[in-house]
Amino acid sequence: MSEKIWNVYLSGEIHSDWRDQIANGIAKAGLPVVLNSPITVHEDSDDCGVAIFGPESDKFWHDQKGAKLNAIRTRTLIEQADLVVVRFGEKYKQWNAAFDAGCAYALGKPYITLHPTEHDHALKEVDGGAAATARDPIQVVQALVYITQGKMP
Question: pLDDT for 22-55, tens place per residue?
């Protein structure tokens, strides 16, 4: 019998190394997990639409082209995911992360939120739909060890 390969989508904040911490923890633990994420180069994510489909003089339409193109990737990867991890960072408001959590919830995909305690009140509804709430990337790795292998940390 082959071991299940878990598909995990890492959504949210792109200004810190949290994805690398999770990837390194997964590799160290030898977990059967494949990670996917949005485009994490901010400029590429913002400008992909106009780079491919042509410039826009109005910033609204510039953003719309990029958002719609990015949505294809995001929706597809969330639909394919076994689990979604949604990170809300300290510095910026990640409206896109909240949207991704809502998509995961609507699709019946379990998700883990990852954020500091000072965001608890602002994210109470998002956390309310989550399967778990983590405070740091190590807890996400420990949860993945338990989920995929049934081992306690």
Answer: 999 999 999 999 999 999 999 999 999 999 999 9
CATH code of the domain covering residue 58: 3.40.50.450
Give the pLDDT confidence of 111-123 residue by residue, as tens digits: 999 999 999 999 9
What total of structural domains would you count in the chain?
A: 1
pLDDT value at position 18? Answer: 97
Asked whether the CA dihedral 145, 146, 151, 153 is positive or negative, the reply is positive
* Residue 98 tokens, joined: 């909240």
* Helix %, strand %, coil % of the chain (to 5): 50, 15, 35
Place of tokens 């992909």: 48
Whether 135 maps to a domain, the answer reads: yes
How large is the angle between the packed helices 59-80 and 95-106, nearest 10 degrees? Answer: 40
70-73 long-range Cβ contacts below 8 angstroms, 24+ apart:
70/38, 70/39, 70/45, 73/38, 73/39
Residue 1 forms part of a structural domain: no
Residue-range definition of the domain harbouring residue 100 = 6-149
